Amino acid sequence: MEDVIFQLLLSLGFNPKHKGFLYVTEGLIYYVNQTNISFGEIYQHIANKHGISKQTVMKCMKNAIDGAIMRRFCDEMQFMQNEDSGSVSVSRFISYYGDTYKNFS
After folding, report:
1. CATH number at residue 56
2. In the chain, how many domains are there?
3. CA atoms 95, 91, 67, 55: torsion sign
């Protein structure tokens, strides 16, 4: 599963050198493997694993998603964008791609 998610994120323009790439990968894996979990729990799980704050996890994930949009804008991500800010929320990104993975695996 990790390899599929890794390749997906690369194809969407994510930079694997950034911490946000790792956190988005872990967030997607955790989301796919759990049922009835809140996004707060996902962020906290990653924060605990890395010894950082939940806010840091969220910020790194957000920066990774925004960076991917800037590097390689794709139609798939366009519909997830907020009309006012042009950005994609972390929770929307994880739920979309996590649910997509669940439906095709």
Report:
1. 1.10.10.10
2. 1
3. negative
Amino acid at 65: I
Cβ-proximal residues to 65 (8 Å cutoff; 6+ apart), any chain: 20, 24, 87, 88, 90, 93
Alpha-carbon span 34 to 27, nearest angstrom: 11
Please list, residue by residue across 9-47, b when 16 or more beta carbons sit within 10 angstroms of its beta carbon and e when fewer do.
beebbbeeebbbbbbbbbbbbbbbeeeeeebeebbebbb
User: Is this model's pTM higher than 0.85 or not?
Assistant: yes
Give residue-wise pLDDT tens across range 4-62. Answer: 999 999 988 899 999 999 999 999 999 999 988 999 999 999 999 999 999 999 999 99
Residues 6 or more apart in contact with residue 101 via CB below 8 angstroms: 1, 4, 5, 8, 28, 32
- Residue-range definition of the domain harbouring residue 44: 2-104
